[in-house]
Structures are given as C-alpha cells and as structure tokens.
Write a structure and sequence with these properties.
Largest sheet: none
Order of helices and strands: HHHHH
Shape: elongated
Strand content: under 5%
C-alpha cells in the first residue's frame, strides 16, 4: 500500500497547505506523519472488520477499511491554511492529536 502517495495527493488537494509545507521544507515529515497515521488506522479498521465479519473476502475488508481510514483522516485535515499563515508541522500534528480518538 502506498500510503505516502495517498497522503501526498490529499495534501495537493489543499494547495495552500501543500505549498506552505513545501516552502517551509516540512512536506516530507508531514507526509510521513500522516502516512503512518493512515497505515495505523487502516490496519485497525481491517482488524475490526475482520472480527465483525469473519469469513468475508479479505480484499473487500481491506478496501472498506481503507475507505474508512481515509474518511477519518480527511475529516481531521485542515481544509485550508489558517488565515494568519502560521501553519507548521507542530501545529498540524497538534491539530491531529486533538482530533484523534483516544483508545
């Protein structure tokens, strides 16, 4: 699974955020951070769906799990850079942590 490619495409859809991260040389760490989050969420959803639907086609479960993980991540990503233009990796990570459900 190419999680980094998926994240890069999501960030490109948010052009202001994408260009700001590039300008600040924080695009790669941000992509890596979100890619790891996406992978972890995808794995968790696959485990949950496998438990709920034993005997289901593994590829169907993987697809559904990825859709759910992507939807969660997209809901947490800022839709545009803040008005005051002080988007940082630390700020983005803090935003993600504030919106991540605790186990």
């Amino acid at each position: 699974m190419q999680y980094k490619t998926i994240i890069l495409e999501l960030l490109k859809q948010r052009q202001e955020m994408y260009y700001h991260l590039r300008k600040e040389r924080k695009l790669l760490p941000t992509v890596q951070h979100y890619a790891q989050e996406l992978k972890d969420s995808h794995e968790a959803w696959k485990d949950l769906l496998s438990e709920v639907r034993p005997g289901s086609d593994p590829s169907q479960i993987a697809t559904e799990a990825l859709e759910m993980a992507l939807a969660e991540l997209e809901d947490r990503l800022p839709s545009a850079s803040p008005r005051n233009d002080d988007l940082t990796l630390d700020g983005a990570m803090a935003f993600v942590l504030r919106h991540t459900p605790r186990a």
